């Protein structure tokens, strides 16, 4: 039993899709969240810089005495997880392995699409993991660099969003039966993505899948939260508090406490 | 990547139900199995002795250079997992947590039955874990000390088995919508148990559920097996090789290599 919070980091608001699922499945766990919206998106940045920023977020969470860290950002997972994991003492996990396992489980035609940021797609992490476990699966990867800015500016239902998503996904439609949302921002665009891909395509929310792994590691390391504790979830953003809070309140369906922090 | 085998231990042949599922879900993993049939069942033995025997099995597997250990025995998990986990360097896991999570996920009526050996039921491990995560679930626990001897003597389809199972489960029928097979021997009796409980009751095979955790930990510790390697699964028993081999060949549907070992 361990009443310390779980730390969740993201380049911006996308990691909230992991937090929503975490709160649903693990209601005894307190969350500390840090979103680096001031420097989002991470996708187009050089790897060296993504690693540096991710370390800053990890160190911020460690300073808050978290018991576990979730890199709720595919780009940061692809670039930084392995290196950071070697250096810190608390369990840390990312979103790519759980998403890959779910995709392998889902596909019937052995044709899986993966969409993500430029860096996530260039890292080829999903293809590598999926083909390591199941070499016969064809993985169609596609960078969608215009999606994260739509979410960070809270334009998830705009006609611009519909146009951008329709245009971006054209080369995947009809080719796959499973599509990995390889960026934690994308579940906020899910209805439009599902509409463009068609109802027959199974969308994999890597972030939500990650919560099963979080739950398992809480058991493995015997650090589950305690039922009776009052939970004080805390959200930090490197950018504007009000914009973050608008998205967080809506997505999490509660009044969340948000504070600005400079890194 | 790590081509060393996964070690699986059990008081006898019950852990083969975990191995079958492991081979299906993780076909690149080599298995070393040790079954202590000479001293089965562990259920009625004192805790001190179960701990001592489990240590012997663990040390045997460690001497074979395994990369992970699975305690595929509920009794040994209940008594020995926590203590042994503190002392050894390779990841080790048991069957109770995965079975408990699956039961919580399955029940609609919040009424869950757990059957196991005398020691597993007396340890109250399933109830503790289930209620820690979900306090509202009512757990009905029942020791079935006559089940393991049926399996170890390969009487899984006999009329004696039907009679024993029918009599034993009377006090659970109609009370639960989910029944945890809290002993890895019990899946070998599954058809009869399902028949007695009724088709509306979901049977949870703790051993099979454990394979998801094994898969997750292989990812977490980055010790997945390698596809191209030839696998030489190896089975050891402390009792008669021929009896073990008969059950193993049938259950695993292959010709397995079995060797006798004295501990």
Automatic annotation (TrEMBL), chains A, B:
<dbReference type="GO" id="GO:0071555">
    <property type="term" value="P:cell wall organization"/>
</dbReference>
<comment type="similarity">
    <text>Belongs to the aspartate/glutamate racemases family.</text>
</comment>
<dbReference type="InterPro" id="IPR018187">
    <property type="entry name" value="Asp/Glu_racemase_AS_1"/>
</dbReference>
<comment type="function">
    <text>Provides the (R)-glutamate required for cell wall biosynthesis.</text>
</comment>
<dbReference type="Pfam" id="PF01177">
    <property type="entry name" value="Asp_Glu_race"/>
</dbReference>
<dbReference type="GO" id="GO:0042802">
    <property type="term" value="F:identical protein binding"/>
</dbReference>
<dbReference type="InterPro" id="IPR001920">
    <property type="entry name" value="Asp/Glu_race"/>
</dbReference>
<keyword id="KW-0961">Cell wall biogenesis/degradation</keyword>
<feature type="binding site">
    <location>
        <begin position="184"/>
        <end position="185"/>
    </location>
    <ligand>
        <name>substrate</name>
    </ligand>
</feature>
<dbReference type="GO" id="GO:0009252">
    <property type="term" value="P:peptidoglycan biosynthetic process"/>
</dbReference>
<dbReference type="GO" id="GO:0008881">
    <property type="term" value="F:glutamate racemase activity"/>
</dbReference>
<dbReference type="InterPro" id="IPR015942">
    <property type="entry name" value="Asp/Glu/hydantoin_racemase"/>
</dbReference>
<dbReference type="InterPro" id="IPR033134">
    <property type="entry name" value="Asp/Glu_racemase_AS_2"/>
</dbReference>
<feature type="binding site">
    <location>
        <begin position="10"/>
        <end position="11"/>
    </location>
    <ligand>
        <name>substrate</name>
    </ligand>
</feature>
<keyword id="KW-0133">Cell shape</keyword>
<feature type="active site" description="Proton donor/acceptor">
    <location>
        <position position="73"/>
    </location>
</feature>
<protein>
    <recommendedName>
        <fullName>Glutamate racemase</fullName>
        <ecNumber>5.1.1.3</ecNumber>
    </recommendedName>
</protein>
<feature type="active site" description="Proton donor/acceptor">
    <location>
        <position position="183"/>
    </location>
</feature>
<dbReference type="InterPro" id="IPR004391">
    <property type="entry name" value="Glu_race"/>
</dbReference>
<keyword id="KW-0413">Isomerase</keyword>
<comment type="pathway">
    <text>Cell wall biogenesis; peptidoglycan biosynthesis.</text>
</comment>
<dbReference type="GO" id="GO:0008360">
    <property type="term" value="P:regulation of cell shape"/>
</dbReference>
<feature type="binding site">
    <location>
        <begin position="74"/>
        <end position="75"/>
    </location>
    <ligand>
        <name>substrate</name>
    </ligand>
</feature>
<feature type="binding site">
    <location>
        <begin position="42"/>
        <end position="43"/>
    </location>
    <ligand>
        <name>substrate</name>
    </ligand>
</feature>
<keyword id="KW-0573">Peptidoglycan synthesis</keyword>
């Amino acid at each position: 039993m361990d009443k310390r919070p779980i730390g969740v980091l993201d380049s911006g608001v996308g990691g909230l899709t992991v937090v929503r699922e975490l709160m649903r499945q693990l209601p005894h766990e307190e969350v500390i969240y840090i979103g680096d919206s001031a420097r989002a998106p991470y996708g187009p940045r050089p790897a060296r810089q993504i690693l540096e920023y991710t370390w800053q977020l990890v160190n911020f969470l460690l300073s808050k005495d978290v018991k576990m860290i979730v890199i709720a950002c595919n780009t940061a997972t692809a670039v930084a997880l392995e290196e950071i994991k070697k250096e810190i003492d608390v369990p840390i996990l990312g979103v790519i392995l759980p998403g890959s396992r779910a995709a392998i489980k889902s596909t019937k035609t052995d044709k899986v699409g993966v969409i993500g940021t430029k860096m996530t797609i260039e890292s080829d992490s999903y293809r590598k993991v999926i083909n390591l476990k199941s070499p016969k699966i064809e993985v169609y990867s596609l960078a969608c660099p215009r999606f994260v800015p739509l979410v960070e500016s809270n334009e998830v239902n705009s006609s611009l969003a519909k146009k951008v998503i329709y245009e971006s996904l054209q080369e995947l439609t009809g080719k796959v039966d499973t599509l990995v949302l390889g960026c934690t921002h994308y579940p906020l665009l899910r209805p439009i993505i599902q509409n463009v891909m068609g109802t027959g395509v199974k969308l994999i929310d890597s972030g939500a899948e990650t919560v099963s792994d979080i739950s398992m590691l809480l058991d493995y390391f015997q650090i589950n939260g305690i039922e009776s504790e009052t939970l004080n979830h805390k959200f930090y953003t490197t950018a504007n508090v009000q914009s973050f809070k608008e998205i967080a309140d809506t997505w999490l369906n509660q009044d969340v406490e948000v504070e600005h922090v400079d890194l």
